[in-house]
Amino acid sequence: MIICYTTFMSSNTVKKTEYEKYLESIQNNIVTPDDVIQSVVKEAIGTDIFKKYRIIAGEVNEVYRIVLVNNQELILRISRTPYPNFQQEKWAIEQVKAIGVPAPTILFIKYITVNGKECSFCLMEKIDGEVLERGNINFGLLSLSERQKYIQKAGNILSKIHSIKTKGFGYIIGDGKAQYETSEALIDQWLSESNQFYNIAKSTDIPEKIITSAIDLVSQLEGIYTQISPCLNHSDYGNKHFIVKNKKIVAIIDWGSIRSDSAIYDFASWDYWYGNYIPTKWLMEGYIDKKIFDSSFEDILHRIRIMKGIETINWYTKQKYSKEVQNAKIKLINDIEYFKKLTSIR
């Protein structure tokens, strides 16, 4: 019999936040039977599970901290996305570890049909340390100097990740293959969903002119992106994915969203999700190749933010999580205002 505990990793508070309740509502619907988990771990390691701790921290994967009978600890992630899911992580981790980026080792990947649906299982080493944003470290309570140093170090690590050159654009599937061969194909695909964007806008009270402006601004990326050489992007780079021990970042985790894109993409993603409380300039300060911060940097960053804004509204509308839809709506309007202000200044 496996003893199971549930742990929320998104805050240090005892009382559940609204977001934690939202995560719980999602995670309650994705529970893999104990015997399936036991068989996967046994096949991979040859040892039985003593305890497992369910970690409620993300919106997609089912995650467990596994304690074996020999006290060894591992991380098991389970996805309802079939093959080749997790292969992109294995590929990315092998690439970045070869150049000195700290990351956990993937020990075993397996694909099993559970209740009529193919699931992906990924067993990984557990890194000794704490997540910088969640768990036992309260990032917001650290001194300003400590916070800045951590993010500057993260910027340095990001430089190494971006030093890996890739081909094509979009999310990486399997062992290094991007979704689209060219940047034009990536942006054309995004623009082809315009009708869906307008439909979502109607259901979320977003003015049609906002969507029209967003589409126009993103369409202008086609010409800009033809000049860009793509590189590996983590695509979800943030302090919630930094493992820290003895005041050092000892691992970057969660490589499931890696993509081939402009190096600015990771900065835009950071700016979108964390920039309001962790200055993006701190990340830039630690970044080695300052040449990317040229006169076009902010322009491209805000256009990517607009793409992410529309995608975020789309995602949370489907998830029926109205609070995050409203947050994304505010960000989208502010990003469009950025370009309006530039026009008025000129």
Q: How would you concisely characterize the structure shown here?
A:
With 346 residues, this protein is of the alpha+beta class.
Summarize the structure in words:
The protein is of the alpha+beta class. The chain has two domains: about 5-125, Phosphorylase Kinase, domain 1; about 140-345, Alpha-Beta Complex (Aminoglycoside 3'-phosphotransferase, Chain: A, domain 2). The chain has helices at about 20-25, 35-45, 85-95, 145-160, 185-190, 195-205, 210-220, 220-225, 265-275, 280-285, 295-320, 320-345, and strands at about 5-10, 50-55, 60-70, 75-80, 105-115, 115-125, 130, 170-175, 175-180, 230-235, 240-245, 250, 260. α4 crosses α10, α6 (about 195-205) packs antiparallel against α7 and α7 packs across α11 (about 295-320). It is globular, with a radius of gyration of 21 Å. The N and C termini lie far apart (about 70 Å).
C-alpha Rg (nearest Å): 21 Å
How many domains would you count in the coordinates?
A: 2
CATH superfamily of the largest domain: Aminoglycoside phosphotransferase (APH), C-terminal lobe
**Strand arrangement, largest sheet?**
1-2-3-4-6-5
In CATH terms, what is the fold-level topology of the largest domain? Aminoglycoside 3'-phosphotransferase, Chain: A, domain 2
CATH architecture heading of the largest domain: Alpha-Beta Complex
The portion of residues assigned to helices is: 40-55%
Number of strands: 13
Strand residues, percent: 15-25%
Poorly predicted tracts of residues: none
Please report the number of helical segments: 12
Note the gap between the termini.
69 Å
Identify the quaternary structure here.
Answer: single chain
Overall geometry comes to: globular
CATH class term of the largest domain: Alpha Beta
N-to-C series of helices and strands: EHHEEEHEEEHEEHHHHEEEEHHHH
Q: Biggest β-sheet, characterized?
A: 6 strands, mixed
Give the class from helix and strand content and strand pairing.
alpha+beta
